[in-house]
Design goal:
The structure is a single chain. The chain has 239 residues and is α+β, with helices and mostly antiparallel strands. The chain contains 5 helices and 12 strands. Strands 4, 5, 6, 7, 8, 9, 10 and 11 form an 8-stranded antiparallel β-sheet that branches. Strand 2 and strand 3 form a beta hairpin. Helix 2 packs antiparallel against helix 4. The two termini are 29 Å apart.
Length: 239
């Protein structure tokens, strides 16, 4: 969930040029601690982890992932921050591993690719200040072993909602199923009010190859969010 917290932090900063509140930081820290402690007792997932899950590629404004049979349209002019987000996470993990006081033992059966961002795309650089919402797309893969007892995608929204609420987002309604091409995913919608502006966020999730796969889009209107989701597709062949 650390990747998720980083994404929400960037989204909030891009919207209002304000960091999360001290309360949100405390809640986020508590969630992180709880998740880390639970991970120590995680059981091996029913589906083996595919350590060679495809990172995917971006060509002509379309992200494609053969392993997941997924394609995602990226609006023209958007900036990619996939490598940067993964680098931030790697450096954080290295720092924690170097500090015995904060290092956590790996979860059983966890692969070397326990969590990573497959795609991070923003309508402008996350650090750039502006009045409008910084629309964005995040596709992440997190080792299912990090979530003890995780059997279906709907359960994934328990910890996800905790992270979202810690960053000031409100859940609009209970998670529900949605068909995207050949796949059925679970979706949850959130919003965050900042002054006269509203940040709308929707996350779609599924379990595949021993991972919890999440697709999160953020926009300033419901129509914008739906347009971004309409750019997603799962095909039988992955082509």
């Amino acid at each position: 969930m650390e990747l998720r917290r980083e994404f929400f932090r960037w989204a909030v900063v891009a919207l209002a040029a304000l960091p999360p509140s001290q309360t949100a930081r405390a809640q986020s820290s508590a969630t992180s601690s709880s998740s880390s402690n639970s991970a120590q007792h995680a059981k091996k997932p029913a589906v083996p982890v595919d350590s060679a899950i495809d990172d995917g590629t971006v060509t002509n404004g379309v992200y494609r992932n053969k392993t997941l049979a997924l394609s995602c349209k990226i609006p023209p002019g958007w900036v990619l921050r996939t490598d940067e987000m993964n680098t931030r996470q790697e450096k954080k993990e290295e720092k924690e591993n170097d500090n015995p006081a904060t290092a956590q033992p790996p979860a059983p059966a966890a692969s070397s690719e326990g969590a990573k961002v497959l795609l991070a795309a923003f309508s402008r650089p996350p650090e750039a200040r502006a009045e409008d919402v910084n629309s964005s797309i995040l596709i992440a893969a997190e080792n299912a072993a990090s979530y003890p007892g995780l059997k279906d995608a709907a359960q994934y929204f328990g910890p996800l909602t905790e992270v979202a609420k810690a960053q000031g987002f409100t859940l609009d309604e209970d998670p529900y199923e949605i068909a995207v091409g050949t796949k059925t995913l679970v979706r949850a919608d959130f919003h965050k009010d900042v002054g006269t502006r509203v940040m709308r966020q929707s996350t779609l999730a599924m379990l595949a190859h021993g991972y919890a796969i999440s697709i999160t889009v953020i926009g300033g209107t419901e129509d914008e969010v739906e347009d971004l989701i309409d750019g997603l597709n799962f095909s039988p062949s992955g082509k």
